[in-house]
Structures are given as C-alpha cells and as structure tokens.
Amino acid sequence: MPGFRQFSTALGVCEIDAVLLSPDSPRLSLRLSEHVHARAGLLQLDCAVRGRFVLPDDVCLLVHVDQTGAQSWCHGQAFARHSAVLVRPRGTSEFMLGAGSRLLFIVVRQDWIRPLLATGGGETAGWDVCAAHFSIGTAASPAGLLQLYQSLAGELEAGVENALAGARPVADEALLREVIQTHLQEAQSLHPDDRMPNSRSQRTHYLVLQRVEHFMRSRLRKEIYLHEMCEAGGVSERTLRNVFEHMVGVSPNRYLAMMRLCMAYRSLARADMSRQSVKSVALSYGLWDLSRFADHYRRIFGELPRATLSGDGA
C-alpha cells in the first residue's frame, strides 16, 4: 500500500495497519506542508479503509473532516462533515474512512503547543479522542475555525501531490499557528452538550467489531467460519452481518479476505526474499489458492506478490 506508507510517514508513525475495503486498487492524494514544529497535510481518498496507528509520545494530531464517506468514524464515533478531532498519544488510535473522504490534518509537537495552551487557560491532560471530537461552524463553535481550515486547505492545494522528500512549508506559518491555537482553544472550551453524539447502538457495534477483528487476527493461518465469528462477537449471524455492514460497509467474509490480503502485502514488503517465498507468506495468512491469491493481489495492489517481495513493485 504505497499511498499509506506515505501517509504513515506524514503522521510520523511507524506504520498504519490498514485493511483496504474497495474492490480495486486504492488511490490516495496527499499534499504536505513541512514546518519546524508541525506538519500539515491534505488527504483525499477514493477508497474505503479501516485502519489503526500509534502516535509517538511527543506529538498530537489535529484533524478537520472536510468531507466524509459512508461508514467513517474514529474509535467507533461517527465522523460528520466539518467536525474536528484531537488525537493524543494514548495507545492505538482506530479509524474507518469511507470512499470520498477528505481530511486536513496537522501533526504538531507537544512541546510547541504548551505556550498556546497556556494562553487558552487550560490543559489537555484529561482529553481523549471522543471528548475532543466536535462540530465546527455551528452555534457552539463559531465559523472562525472552519474558515481557518478552509484557508489552510487552499494553501495546501498549491503544494506538490504525494511529496514527502524535501516537502517545503507551503502553508503560511502564521495561519498554521492560528489554526492550531483556535482548534485547541475550542476543544478546551467544549461543554459536554457540544460534543459529537455517539449512540448506544453505534458503540455496541464498534465493540462487537473489535472482538471479531481480534479473533480474526489471532487465527489467520486457519480456516475461519461464520459461526466462529458469531461466537467471538457474542451475537447472532444476522446481527454480525448488520454490524459489519454498518461499521465497515462489507460482509464479515469479505472483510476477512481483505484483511488476509493486506497482511500478506505488509509481510511481503518487509520480507527477505532469500529466506521467505510468496508461497510461505500466503499460506501463513490462510491464502491456500495461490493462483487466486495472485489475481486478487494484483487487482488490489497493482503488482504481483513476487514484485512486492523482490522490491521491484510500486
């Protein structure tokens, strides 16, 4: 997943653990503005992806959801257009982005934002991702932050697409600072009623999805049957299908198949071809039909498995 390797580097994380859910090769547009203490980016996706990542301890992540595809959420909490999120380095961050999503993100060093927090009269020690997920451009959050993010998007669009090496500060430094300060101040001033709602059913579905995903990952070498997924999730087959359709937009079996493919891709990309073969990697993820595996792999990743293993691919 070359595009997601770039996105991982942009976030400053080791790797985004992504499961691609669109039937064809994913396309990702990424524009960056590199600064001394922060990195701003504009991400556009034409594919659906379920992913997770871990932020380094010395940074936090600010996100503006400009456009959102179906089944888009963070930690099970549904994204809405023109919402804002603050992600702090507290374990694994989980997300789902539907096709057509467009996000502006800022990765900023925590030591740089401390003076900004001081002017806001608060501290972020108690925040979590859900508590800092709020709508902007509403009565509770005036349009100032939305307009600032729209200005930032305009400047990022002038940058070079998918450029990481030698990325330059496209965005104005003063604008970037104002966006960060305004985002943090609005998050600090949130009243509980201003936070993005999260229904009980949404939360329940998210927890079921997590349990079934964990079961899948623990048994990828083996055959996994639908009734076993139901037992892992503690739900009926009908409920399981509804959960996956609602949360990730595909059936449980389709999700499992894409998870196997994506895990195989990551292993092949990291493998030493003198010690591992395409066959050994495929079998380790329960991909028994090697011909079918190669066909599906090429359709999704645009290259054959052996090209990824040899390092000759994209």
TrEMBL record:
The keyword Transcription applies. It comes from the Bacteria. Signal peptide: none annotated. Transmembrane segments: none annotated. InterPro entries: AraC_XylS_family_regulators, Homeodomain-like_sf, HTH_AraC. GO terms for molecular function: DNA-binding transcription factor activity; sequence-specific DNA binding. Keywords: DNA-binding, Transcription, Transcription regulation. It holds the Pfam family HTH_18. Residues 210-311 form the HTH araC/xylS-type domain. This is DNA-binding domain-containing protein, AraC-type. It comes from Frateuria aurantia (strain ATCC 33424 / DSM 6220 / KCTC 2777 / LMG 1558 / NBRC 3245 / NCIMB 13370).
